[in-house]
Fold this sequence. Notes:
47% of the residues lie in helices and 5% in strands. The protein has 17 helices and 8 strands. The strands form 3 sheets. It has a 4-stranded antiparallel β-sheet with strand order 3-2-1-4, covered by helices on one side. Strands 5-6 form a two-stranded antiparallel ribbon. Strands 7-8 form a two-stranded antiparallel ribbon. Strand 1 (271-275) and strand 2 form a beta hairpin. The longest helix is centred in the middle third of the chain and has 22 residues, at 226-247. It is globular and about 80 Å long.
Amino acid sequence: MMDIDKLQEERGEHYDDRHVDINILKSDPSYIQECVLWIKAFVSSDFRLVYNSTSTSGSKYSPLPSCWSHITKLRPLTDNEPQLMRVDAMSFVILLAAAMRLGVPQERFSLQIVHELHAHAEMKYDCLDFDDLKSHEETRDLDESYLRFALAWVGIKRARAMYRNEEKRTMLPFHRKDEVATQSKSLLQSIEIFAKEQCQYNPDSPVGLWNLGWFTTQVKHNEKQPWAAAVEFYNLMADCCMLADKADDDFYRAEAGVEAAMGLVLGGKPIVGYSVKSGAKVQVLRDFDLTWEACGGSDADGLNMPIGAPTPVAAREAGVKETNRLREKVEPTLLEPGETVIVPHWEVSRVWNFAMKAFMRLEVFDHGQYVYGETIGWEIGEGFLKGKCGPLAANRYNTCPQVGFKNTRDKGSFPCDFCGTVQSNLQRCARCKKTQYCSRDCQKNAWKTHKRVCVAAN
Length: 458
């Protein structure tokens, strides 16, 4: 049992025992209905929208279950060490909704609840039977897969916020900066686990692949070789495009398409060009996962690797070289002297056009801003196609491509409300705090029409 007095003494004014007992909340059908609405709103909108609780509760803030404040530690996700004695299916729903409601700036507290629920679900205690939800009218359409998918979404959002901002990792005076669970690698590992669980519990949704792609870009902490990460990233985004197309989801058609185009520019389709002994120039699509053992130790004729060559002799020479690389176990990301990475311009264009068709459909409803803010590849893909920048893959000899991933997704890039210029450092109107402009001139030019709708924020 937890010593409440000791906890209160430790946390001082930060401890609040005025929350409602969870057993009381479980007996209130209207509160359960509100929790379900929260969960459905978050999942259906990919966390872009939230359900307004005032329409149900009649008050500004609905009560939170008191037991959430007893989850005092943020343990690594892989530990699976629960802090609460018993969590049944209805308590799982209530605590999940509480984790969703504890948003900015309480991401750490929200993530503590998520890790706690994850531990209970992974341990598969007898008291946590999701089939029990079928006996209640408010929760009869919820099941384990849906709730685990939602739990993973909350975990990714909160862990990513803490990963980007170290100040969110220590919210209270007694939180330590050296905690294992709040280190960048640990938070990134949680994001990877949650993203894989999204793929597991909802394989028809592109969300899991999208989040796995984001994880792949963080080469500083995920210990992936940059060029190999670019290849994996492109493949994930290509699969995400196909799932989005199947689900008729324009958001992920646009976002994954933009990211896939960036992946190609970064060398995501590892086409390597070089000259063979006969002097002919060839192109080879290398498979980073292919090994000498996997291909059965075959010679050049049996090597299943796409090779573009002007003559059969040149193709044979390229096949011999690629066979020797596999036999000698040369690192696939290593470029030998005379080799260069080739970016297929036509394919970048095809993927980009696929994304822009979906983007224009979103713009009809003024939803294109989400694509601007949630993608990191916009400037890279567009700049490559317009000739403003060359391919970012390496073109030097005997080096690996040092591919970097920009963090514009974290900062967000949005269009100016007057001229439409897209950038991340827009300035908001000082009066209404809603419209945003790229320069003072744009703000002055827009004032003639904007002043009719500009209302002070307070």
